[in-house]
Recover the amino acids of this structure.
C-alpha cells in the first residue's frame, strides 16, 4: 500500500509540474539549410525562318545557352569561289563570310535565350548559299 501511495504522489507531483510549465509549442524553431542542384548545360540554335542570300529575304534564329561563360554561334556553308563574296548581318554584327565555308558570327558572354534577325548584304554569288548554324559553349 505504501508503494501505491508513493506512486500516486509521484503522479500528482508530475501533474503539478506539467501544469506549471509554460507551453513551448508556439515558439518557432530557427535554423539554416542549404539546397544544391545540378542543372545540365543546354545550348541550341533554331532557324524559325531561313534567310535567302540570293533573294535577299531575312531570316530569324532563336539561340539559347545556359552556360555561365557564354556561347559562340558559327555558320557553315559551301566554300565560296574566288569571284564570290557575301556579308552576313547577324543581329548587330556584320561579318564578311570567309571563302573557306565556316565563320564565327556571334558571341555572347553569359547565359541567354534570344531571337536574332539576320540577312545577307553585299552579295555576289554564282550559286545559292545556305547557312547551317551551330552553337557551342565557351
Amino acid at each position: 500500500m505504501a508503494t501505491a501511495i508513493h506512486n500516486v504522489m509521484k503522479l500528482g507531483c508530475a501533474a503539478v509540474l506539467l501544469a506549471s510549465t509554460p507551453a513551448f509549442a508556439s515558439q518557432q524553431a530557427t535554423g539554416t539549410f542549404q539546397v544544391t542542384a545540378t542543372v545540365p548545360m543546354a545550348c541550341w540554335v533554331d532557324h524559325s525562318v531561313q534567310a535567302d542570300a540570293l533573294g535577299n529575304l531575312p531570316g530569324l534564329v532563336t539561340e539559347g545557352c545556359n552556360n555561365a561563360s557564354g556561347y559562340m554561334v558559327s555558320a557553315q556553308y559551301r566554300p565560296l569561289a574566288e569571284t564570290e563574296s557575301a556579308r552576313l548581318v547577324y543581329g548587330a554584327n556584320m561579318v564578311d563570310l570567309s571563302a573557306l565555308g565556316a565563320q564565327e558570327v556571334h558571341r555572347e558572354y553569359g547565359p541567354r535565350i534570344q531571337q536574332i534577325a539576320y540577312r545577307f548584304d553585299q552579295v555576289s554569288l554564282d550559286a545559292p548559299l545556305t547557312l547551317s548554324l551551330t552553337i557551342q559553349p565557351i
Remarks:
- The longest strand covers residues 112-124.
- The helical segments are 2-20.
